Amino acid sequence: MVTLTGMAPTNTTSKNRLPPTISKASAPSFWLPLKWTGRWKVIYNASNPQSPVSHLSWMMIMLPFVSPFDFGAVGDGQTLNTAALQAAIDGCAARGGGTVYLPAGRYLTGSLFFRDHITLHLDAGAVLLGSQDPADYPIISNRWEGVEQPTYAPLLTGSGLENITITGRGTIDGQGDPWWRAKHMNTLAYPRPRLIGFTGCRGVMIEGVTLVNSPAWTVHPVRCENVNLHGITIINPPDSPNTDGINPDSCRLVRISDCYISVGDDCIAIKSGTQNDHRLTACRDITITNCTLERGHGGVVIGSEMSG
Fold first, then answer.
1. Is 265 a catalytic residue?
2. Cα–Cα 20 to 30 A to 178, which of 8, 19, 53, 209?
3. What 8-state DSSP symbol labels residue 288?
């Protein structure tokens, strides 16, 4: 058993609801292959929690844990938690990085903007619900179908960041039905939000979570480097428009492994912008292994935006 530090005691009156201990077997999401950089708070040997080590090929990141309940979050599926969850992310960032821990519950939110060295961990039974109100998604400049243009911000997003992680056994539900209807009726002022979209980031990991009902493309990294997508499940209805699974766009060093994808468009589409984009960058070093690609217009597709 590996004791986690920097967490609320079990006898605290706070609503942190954070487990005092964790084992590799019970929460494999926390075990990542990393190089020791000296940045992380402390590294422990799994077999001897009292002895810090820096030479293991498998190590545990020990960073402060933050509970969104301390910032007013309510997991009832109805209360809008955008401000509380964003405050938790910003609170972690102010400490130099950490983990925002979501226990079981249903958390309604609009767009959340990550910061450097942030992990969002969704425990089993935790469901992050995307708001169905367009007002909860700020308008940002983002690449959509190869062109930089104003779009609704993704549900989970960030730009120019390092070391960002989404892990756990919970679910992120984009609640995309009204967005799909608006697409068919041509009533949207801007392109729909993606479920997860990061731009210009280094060190992106998404592991273990289930992603469903994305308003548009599900996972869309743009101009990112060192992207690891492992063991995730992506399910969108087969008739949902443009709900691609994973679309690496002008990225390099991308590994997609052990994923299950069944969607309303391409399961995996490798892209690199159009000739109208002044920052043309090719996709490079993309590895896809041991994935199950069920329903979709294509399994692994090149394009259609491939001018980089």
1. yes
2. 209
3. E
Mean pLDDT over 52-79 rounds to 69
CA angle 141, 136, 96 (to 5 degrees): 70
Are 264 and 241 a contacting pair, CB within 8 Å?
Answer: yes
> In angstroms, what CA-CA distances link 241 with 181, 191, 263, 273?
9, 12, 9, 20
3-state DSSP helix/strand/coil percent for the chain, to nearest 5? 10, 40, 50
pLDDT of 11 > 60? The answer is no
Residue 87 gets which letter from DSSP?
H
* Tokens 């545990």, residue located: 60
- 63-302: which CATH topology? Pectate Lyase C-like (2.160.20)
State pLDDT tens for residues 88-140. Answer: 999 999 999 999 999 999 999 999 999 999 999 999 999 999 999 999 999 98
Cβ–Cβ < 8 Å for 162, 226 = no
> What are the extents of the domains in the chain?
1-62, 63-302
Tell me which range, 10-19, 153-162, 278-287, is most confidently predicted by mean pLDDT.
153-162
The CA-based angle 231-172-113, given to 5 degrees, is 105
pTM to 2 decimal places? 0.80
State whether residue 36 is helix, strand or coil: coil
The confidence score (pLDDT) of residue 277 equals 58
d(C-alpha 47, C-alpha 51), whole Å: 9
